Amino acid sequence: MKRLVHVAALLALALPTTALADDEDDDNGFGLAGLLSAKNKEDLPPVILSAGEPLADAPWELKSGTYYEFEIQGDGSQELAIVGPEFFRAIWVDEIVVEGLEIRPLGVDSIEFDEAGEMEIGFVAIKPGSYYLKVPGSTGETQRLEITIK
After folding, report:
1. How far apart are CA 11 and CA 23, in angstroms?
2. In the prediction, which pLDDT does 18 show?
3. Which of 104, 44, 46 has the alpha carbon at shortest distance from 75?
Protein backbone atom coordinates (compact mmCIF):
# COMPACT_ATOMS: atom_id res chain seq x y z
CA MET A 1 0.00 0.00 0.00
CA LYS A 2 2.87 2.34 0.86
CA ARG A 3 4.36 1.72 -2.55
CA LEU A 4 1.07 2.64 -4.27
CA VAL A 5 0.97 5.95 -2.37
CA HIS A 6 4.57 6.71 -3.38
CA VAL A 7 3.85 5.94 -7.04
CA ALA A 8 0.74 8.13 -6.94
CA ALA A 9 2.72 10.98 -5.38
CA LEU A 10 5.46 10.69 -8.01
CA LEU A 11 2.89 10.71 -10.80
CA ALA A 12 1.24 13.79 -9.35
CA LEU A 13 4.59 15.59 -9.28
CA ALA A 14 5.35 14.52 -12.83
CA LEU A 15 2.09 15.90 -14.25
CA PRO A 16 2.53 19.25 -15.94
CA THR A 17 1.21 22.18 -14.02
CA THR A 18 0.10 25.38 -15.66
CA ALA A 19 -0.12 28.85 -14.24
CA LEU A 20 -2.89 30.95 -15.68
CA ALA A 21 -1.87 34.38 -16.83
CA ASP A 22 -3.24 37.19 -14.72
CA ASP A 23 -3.66 40.65 -16.23
CA GLU A 24 -2.28 42.26 -13.06
CA ASP A 25 0.92 40.21 -13.06
CA ASP A 26 1.91 40.65 -16.71
CA ASP A 27 5.20 42.46 -17.13
CA ASN A 28 4.46 43.35 -20.74
CA GLY A 29 1.07 44.95 -20.01
CA PHE A 30 -0.87 42.48 -22.13
CA GLY A 31 -3.58 40.23 -20.73
CA LEU A 32 -4.82 36.86 -21.87
CA ALA A 33 -5.65 38.13 -25.36
CA GLY A 34 -2.32 39.87 -25.98
CA LEU A 35 -2.65 42.70 -28.49
CA LEU A 36 -6.43 42.44 -28.50
CA SER A 37 -6.83 42.69 -24.72
CA ALA A 38 -8.92 45.46 -23.21
CA LYS A 39 -5.81 46.95 -21.56
CA ASN A 40 -4.29 47.55 -25.00
CA LYS A 41 -7.37 49.20 -26.58
CA GLU A 42 -8.05 52.90 -27.15
CA ASP A 43 -11.02 54.67 -28.71
CA LEU A 44 -10.32 57.46 -31.17
CA PRO A 45 -12.60 60.41 -31.94
CA PRO A 46 -14.93 59.86 -34.90
CA VAL A 47 -14.21 60.88 -38.47
CA ILE A 48 -17.09 63.00 -39.76
CA LEU A 49 -18.08 62.92 -43.45
CA SER A 50 -20.19 66.01 -44.05
CA ALA A 51 -20.14 68.55 -46.89
CA GLY A 52 -17.87 71.45 -45.96
CA GLU A 53 -17.14 70.19 -42.43
CA PRO A 54 -13.73 69.12 -41.07
CA LEU A 55 -12.98 65.39 -40.93
CA ALA A 56 -11.70 65.62 -37.34
CA ASP A 57 -10.95 68.12 -34.59
CA ALA A 58 -7.27 67.25 -34.23
CA PRO A 59 -4.55 65.03 -35.71
CA TRP A 60 -4.16 61.49 -34.36
CA GLU A 61 -0.99 60.33 -32.61
CA LEU A 62 -0.97 56.54 -32.39
CA LYS A 63 1.37 54.07 -30.75
CA SER A 64 2.58 51.05 -32.72
CA GLY A 65 1.22 47.82 -31.24
CA THR A 66 -1.90 49.43 -29.75
CA TYR A 67 -5.43 48.40 -30.76
CA TYR A 68 -7.66 51.32 -31.78
CA GLU A 69 -11.32 51.74 -32.68
CA PHE A 70 -12.99 54.69 -34.39
CA GLU A 71 -16.26 55.48 -36.08
CA ILE A 72 -16.78 57.06 -39.48
CA GLN A 73 -20.04 58.98 -39.48
CA GLY A 74 -21.57 60.15 -42.75
CA ASP A 75 -24.49 62.57 -42.53
CA GLY A 76 -25.68 62.02 -46.11
CA SER A 77 -25.27 65.70 -47.06
CA GLN A 78 -23.15 64.63 -50.03
CA GLU A 79 -21.68 61.45 -51.48
CA LEU A 80 -18.26 61.45 -49.80
CA ALA A 81 -15.31 59.12 -49.51
CA ILE A 82 -12.04 58.98 -47.62
CA VAL A 83 -8.81 57.58 -48.96
CA GLY A 84 -5.60 56.71 -47.19
CA PRO A 85 -3.91 53.75 -48.85
CA GLU A 86 -0.57 54.32 -47.11
CA PHE A 87 -2.30 54.51 -43.71
CA PHE A 88 -4.33 51.37 -44.37
CA ARG A 89 -1.12 49.51 -45.32
CA ALA A 90 0.57 50.65 -42.08
CA ILE A 91 -2.12 49.06 -39.89
CA TRP A 92 -3.69 45.64 -39.44
CA VAL A 93 -7.47 46.00 -39.83
CA ASP A 94 -9.16 43.61 -37.42
CA GLU A 95 -12.71 44.39 -38.45
CA ILE A 96 -15.07 46.89 -40.02
CA VAL A 97 -18.56 46.89 -38.53
CA VAL A 98 -21.50 48.24 -40.54
CA GLU A 99 -24.99 47.96 -39.02
CA GLY A 100 -23.92 45.01 -36.88
CA LEU A 101 -22.27 43.19 -39.79
CA GLU A 102 -18.60 42.42 -39.12
CA ILE A 103 -16.26 42.50 -42.10
CA ARG A 104 -12.72 41.16 -41.77
CA PRO A 105 -10.94 42.58 -44.82
CA LEU A 106 -7.55 41.61 -46.14
CA GLY A 107 -6.93 45.25 -46.99
CA VAL A 108 -8.61 48.61 -47.49
CA ASP A 109 -7.82 51.46 -49.88
CA SER A 110 -10.80 53.76 -49.48
CA ILE A 111 -14.28 53.97 -47.98
CA GLU A 112 -17.28 55.75 -49.50
CA PHE A 113 -20.63 56.83 -48.08
CA ASP A 114 -23.41 57.24 -50.66
CA GLU A 115 -25.95 58.03 -47.92
CA ALA A 116 -26.07 58.67 -44.18
CA GLY A 117 -24.65 55.95 -41.98
CA GLU A 118 -21.96 54.83 -39.57
CA MET A 119 -19.22 52.26 -39.51
CA GLU A 120 -16.65 51.31 -36.92
CA ILE A 121 -13.10 50.21 -37.71
CA GLY A 122 -10.91 48.29 -35.27
CA PHE A 123 -7.21 48.06 -36.05
CA VAL A 124 -3.70 47.64 -34.65
CA ALA A 125 -1.21 50.37 -35.56
CA ILE A 126 1.90 48.66 -36.96
CA LYS A 127 4.33 50.73 -39.02
CA PRO A 128 5.64 54.01 -37.56
CA GLY A 129 5.44 57.03 -39.84
CA SER A 130 3.27 59.94 -41.00
CA TYR A 131 0.02 59.18 -42.81
CA TYR A 132 -3.34 60.73 -43.63
CA LEU A 133 -6.98 60.09 -44.40
CA LYS A 134 -8.55 62.61 -46.76
CA VAL A 135 -11.51 63.33 -48.98
CA PRO A 136 -10.27 62.50 -52.50
CA GLY A 137 -9.81 65.49 -54.80
CA SER A 138 -9.91 67.97 -51.93
CA THR A 139 -7.13 70.43 -51.18
CA GLY A 140 -8.35 72.01 -47.93
CA GLU A 141 -6.63 71.18 -44.65
CA THR A 142 -9.96 70.48 -42.94
CA GLN A 143 -10.66 67.70 -45.45
CA ARG A 144 -7.51 65.85 -44.32
CA LEU A 145 -6.75 64.02 -41.07
CA GLU A 146 -3.04 63.84 -40.26
CA ILE A 147 -1.99 60.60 -38.51
CA THR A 148 1.33 59.79 -36.86
CA ILE A 149 2.24 56.27 -35.71
CA LYS A 150 5.11 56.22 -33.21
Report:
1. 31
2. 40
3. 46
